[in-house]
Write a structure and sequence with these properties.
Strand content: under 5%
Mean pLDDT: 88
Largest sheet: 2 strands, antiparallel
Number of helices: 7
Distance between the termini: 43 Å
Low-confidence stretches: none
Structural class: mainly alpha
Shape: globular
């Protein structure tokens, strides 16, 4: 009998698609899942982005957003590359509100970025926090901007 502990990795695609009942007006066909919708929006607004990159970014953004909601008060931040997808998710307000309802106790999670980027290792620490919260981390995406964090203002209540 094995005594090994098996850790289950949280699936951002399944997490996102599970919110469909909260925003049925966004899922208009059987083929259009919330995951597919967000990938399509990333591709629409970033003409040089590939589908693979869009999916990788979306997975990291779901992991980051949920972790920020579940780990209130923990200093976190993303680099420029991941931040592109953070903004895309937040701009799809019905879906972002559904995430807030589900993972932030129904409270809106603010996004109040500082103007000056920090260069203090926050991006790589954030990647480790995501791992600790049960998500797979795309190390390449997090290390691309490891020295260029775009943090939120910790003076704004419940912001990430």
């Amino acid at each position: 009998m094995s005594t090994a502990v098996h850790t289950r990795t949280r699936d951002p695609q399944a997490i996102l698609n599970a919110l469909a009942h909260r925003v049925p007006h966004l899922v208009t066909t059987a083929e259009l899942t919330l995951w597919e919708r967000e990938v399509a929006l990333l591709l629409r607004d970033n003409s040089v982005m590939t589908r693979d990159t869009a999916e990788r970014l979306l997975g990291q953004v779901i992991a980051y957003t949920i972790t920020a909601m579940e780990r209130k008060g923990v200093d976190m931040g993303v680099g420029y590359t991941v931040d592109v997808a953070v903004h895309a998710l937040i701009l799809d307000t019905p879906l972002y509100f559904a995430l807030c309802d589900e993972y932030n106790g129904g409270e809106y999670k603010h996004h109040a970025p500082l103007i000056t980027r920090r260069r203090d290792g926050t991006v790589l620490r954030t990647a480790q926090i995501l791992r600790d919260n049960g998500f797979a981390v795309d190390a390449e995406l997090w290390s691309m901007d490891a020295a260029e964090c775009s943090p939120c203002d910790n003076q704004v209540p419940d912001s990430h």
